[in-house]
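The methods section describes the discrete structure representation at length, but only in general terms. The central task, working out the structure tokens from the amino acid sequence alone, is never made concrete. Nothing conveys this as quickly as seeing an actual entry. For illustration, here is how one protein appears when written out as sequence plus structure tokens:
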Amino acid sequence: MNKDITLEDLGYNELIKHKTYMFYIKPLKENVEYENDEIHLEFNFENKTICKTYGDDNTVCEITVEELQAIYNKCKELGWLDE
């Protein structure tokens, strides 16, 4: 796994950088016609959460910094970061 990987490397582009949040967008396919053809990734600076929205029903998955740290630690424990 590339330890220096960025959101841009994964196909995300910064769309908005605001005082309270940063918003990234990733097309699900080459010719995006609808918002549902995109993944939205929002970093909220006020409550320190990350929100990922995607799909026809705008499915949302919110991750806290603590959860992100625990996920990182589990990946490290599993040796996934060394691959």
About this structure: The two ends are 5 Å apart (CA to CA). The helical segments are 65-77. The chain has a mean pLDDT of 80. Residues 37 and 56 are 8 Å apart (CA to CA).
